[in-house]
């Protein structure tokens, strides 16, 4: 089965280092990614290669689904890649930043290789990945609202 891929990009009125710093601190993810209850750093330094974060996804009003990811590549102001070690969908992905004038173009890309029974549900996997990368629109809102960025 082929790799399922999705990507989306936005132009954010903010410098690349500020955008990178916000993304590199996984604890900021629940502020812009729907469905995340919390993210905490388990080991390493925020945004550094090898850093491991534990996530808690909303499941129902009384429960959550755990997940863990590791930073696999990090170039300040330019690139942050990760691999999901444990969670609902084992994806690899990254944020790719480029400067455009006084703004930053951010591309969020995800890859997933369906295995086992999930091979039969690749269309669902495609839809889920596309929904996830489109959340980048919320990141734009958060970073372009000064009070949100400081909070």
Layout: helices, strands, pairs:
Blueprint: E1 4-12, H1 16-24, H2 29-32, E2 36-43, E3 52-60, E4 63-75, E5 79-86, E6 92-100, E7 103-112, H3 122-134, H4 136-144, H5 146-150
Antiparallel strand pairs: 1-7, 2-3, 3-4, 4-5, 5-6, 6-7
* Low-pLDDT windows of residues: none
Tally of separate domains: 1
Largest sheet strand order: 1-7-6-5-4-3-2
Q: Beta-strand level of the residues, as a percent range? A: 35-45%
In helices, the fraction of residues equals 25-40%
CATH topology value:
Alpha-D-Glucose-1,6-Bisphosphate, Chain A, domain 4
Distance between the termini: 43 Å
Largest sheet: 7 strands, antiparallel
CATH homologous superfamily annotation: START domain
Q: Mind telling me the C-alpha Rg? A: 15 Å
- pLDDT averaged residue by residue: 88
Q: Which secondary-structure class do the elements indicate?
A: alpha+beta
Tally of separate helices: 5
CATH class: Alpha Beta
CATH architecture: 2-Layer Sandwich
Shape: globular
For the secondary structure, the number of strands is: 7
